[in-house]
Amino acid sequence: MINKVQALCAITLVATAISTQAQSVGTNTITAPPLTLSPTEQEIQDIKNPFPWLSWGGDLRIRNEYFDSALSLTTESRLSPLFGSLAAQDYFRIRGRLWTTITPVENLSLNAGLAAEPREFMEHSTFDTYYNGLGLQWRYGIFDSLNVQWKKAFDLPATVTVGRQNIFLGDGWLVGDGTPEDGSFTTFLDSARITVNLEDQMTTIDAIGIIQDGRPDGWLPTLGPSTSMGGDPEPYLLTDQNEKGAILWVANKSIPQANLDGFFIYKNDTRINSDPAATFGDNANIYTFGGSVSGLVDNHWKYMAEGAYQCGDKQDPELNGQTAAPNPLLAPSAQTKGYRDLSAFGVNARLTYLFNDKWNDQLSLCFEYLTGDNPNTTTDEMFDVLWGRWPRWSEMYNIYSYVQESRVGQTANIYRIGPTWTVAPFKNFDFSASYFALFADQAVPTRDLNETLNPALGIPASAGPFSTTGTFRGHYFQTIFKYRFSKHMTGHLWGEWLLPGDYYVSKGLIQFLRAEVMFTF
After folding, report:
1. SS3 of 494, please?
2. Partners of 266 in the beta sheet?
3. 119-121 and 259-270 as β-strands: parallel, antiparallel, unpaired?
4. Model pTM?
5. Which CATH number fits domain 2-19+58-520: 2.60.40.1080, 1.10.10.10, 2.160.10.10, 2.40.160.100?
6. pLDDT higher than threshold 60 for residue 452
7. Which of 116, 64, 122 lies closest to 93 in space, CA to CA?
8. Residue % of the chain over a pLDDT of 70
9. Residues 42-71, buried b or exposed e (16+ Cβ, 10 A)?
10. What ranges do the domains of the chain cover?
């Protein structure tokens, strides 16, 4: 299957190179004329906006993804009983979306969107209810947005949005994706948001309330069944548990060299307990206090630094000995079926040098530290990224490779440091390359995968693919090619590789490759 992926990547690269040469001629010497729409583009705009009070649009995203050992962390079934024999994955994801905005009166709008993403598996799947499946997985359709928005509410500089909506705060470190389990199929949060824009003070205040059901049909019916058709009690999930929350976020941009953000986030988790065989998630009350500072200094240096502290309590069955056997990775004194006090913190920083040349060269140095849980204490020290479980810096590692250590995208217990180079040598073409040295805060991943701890499944309790003695996660590499073919078509080639360190038992190369084309109407 890797040959097919390589061929697809090569075809896309050739198309990119030809288009680049054709479009880059004279770009540095010819001044673009004022923008005017072509007859075709004007017709498209007229179709998308047939009435002053109605607009609509859509897109189609086609992805081919191949990865090897990214989820299993090994090819040995004894180390990864659930995924070891399915280490290689090769599949297409075909996501289609339609959306519309209806504005019956000024400043009041109704926004709605539908999405569906069938998947075609060329290798036996490791995914949700389609585990070990082959061929086409139709999945379901879902409203990925459905909300009412009121601008200038009560004649104040405020916007009120109530309903299903996408919310992305700051750089998305802690608030960026409310549906991590469906893998970028959707990202919404069912919530109410009030945004106050104080222009004279250059300050924005967001107050948000969240009530998120873990199941796709928890609030609204899906188009087609969102539970297994094969008798598997596990349904498709949007997230691991039912979640409620409150966010207060204040951003001030009055000083260009020091933009300031401060935030308080409360998140309540409640396990999904509809069936003893279909129980997921944890119970938790998490209080997060933090802030960030960012800015541009001297036209060449750009920086960002953010940090957060968490307290509260959490009852996590994957840690607390609630499986059929006690967790062998925890000291006996740390075993408990009750809540544990939470005390954790994280920092995330980036320093960028802007060359300000015709290729828009930029060189960044990134550092991130998220605490891990000490297996010898009754306190839970593992940082929780809340609604930040999306591929902020890696499509492979901080999404798939954390499944056996915690959950999809539940990045924690990590030091990450390294450079990223980005460049745009031609019109509509962008390239980036990254290297990160990855370390673990704690050698023991206390949220080890359940079946590696469960003798009832015929599997002896073990640490699975983790050594529990080393803290070097490995050398991580990433390259991304992006190209805009036209206003309505974009594409990219994406590659990631990890050379595992002594944190893992297996030392074989872990890799991820993706080719994508996106059509937008």
Report:
1. strand
2. 246, 287
3. unpaired
4. 0.90
5. 2.40.160.100
6. no
7. 64
8. 86
9. eebeeeeeeeeeebbbbbebebbbbbbbbb
10. 2-19+58-520
